[in-house]
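Thought: the user wants the 3D structure for the chain below. I'll pass the sequence to the structure tool as-is, report back what it returns, then summarize two notable features.
Action: structure_tool
Action Input:
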Amino acid sequence: MLHVDVLIVGAGPAGCMAAIGAAQKGISVLVLDRKSPGFGKERCAGLVPRLLFTELPVSAAGSVIQPVTYMETVYPSKIRYTTYAPGFILNRTAFDNILLQHALSCGVMVWFDVTCHYHDGETVTVLKQSKPLKIKPRIIIAADGPVSYFARHFFPLQRQYILALQYINDLHKPSETYQIFFNQDFYGGYGWCFPAGDIAKIGIGIQTKSGISIKSFLDSNIKRLIREIADLNGLSLKPRQETFGLIPISPPPDSMVFNNIVLAGDAANQTHPITGSGIAQAVTCGYLAGLSVRKTIETGNKSFLSEYDQLWRQRWFPELQRAHLRRQELLQNWHDLETALSTCWVTSKAYYDF
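Observation:
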């Protein structure tokens, strides 16, 4: 059996930042991830606000594909609204690797290709090279994504998702504007086209609907969207690749702490339920979780875990609470989507009147 002070499940932004926050001389931190480093397709559009980079402990400039300056929102009537919204389009694999390398430099241990199999309240059984191994951590930080094992088994969380399909297409016309497309058919979600150097990330996300094949619905509607905007945007019609993913849209739990388990990132439903954005929350909340866990290990006082609840709520809860209320309003008025967007989309001044 392996004994560690802190076990972090998930090596994405939330997990790596939690590891950086928890790492301190004398504290053993182990990060597990079920994938190999750099393995698989990016499921993320990769848009972050520029201000996020001021909060990172290391320069992530090498992960930026390009800056963007404006958001263009296309309403169902085809009316377009352009808003100043500066951000970066990231290569998520590169971004995650920068955070991972910094965590390693802080003395963190990282294991890849490891799956969490079972937690009995004291030990975590993992499968490493297909062989079971028991780990006994003092504290667990679960940053294992939207279908988190720990969130599902130990927290009373609602689990609703946006189902998203994204294509990567060649882009022949550079742009500093990213686009959002609302359509009555994209129930509970929207379409997007994000320029990323010589490619564009084009996708559609919708809330689960019964009676339809989600994959075929998304596929046919992305192809239709690409045909509509190809000439104007300078897009190729044939995609290089496609990815499918889940975006959690349910409210976060009342507390992110249960016994010695702490949640962060998508596992904690810290994703914005209107925009679907989650990288900024993962970065800041993961780090706050790590700091609180470090204080707990250093002092032996578990009350510091509740400090994480306070800190992340101070930072993000007012905006997420507003977004959940606006999402309810948006869905209730989806039949009149054009009007609903005037108060329920983030570029509207009325959106913030709460």
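Final Answer: Structure generated. The chain has two domains: 2-42+91-156+252-332, 46-90+161-248. Residues 46-90+161-248 form a domain with the D-Amino Acid Oxidase; Chain A, domain 2 fold (CATH 3.30.9.10).
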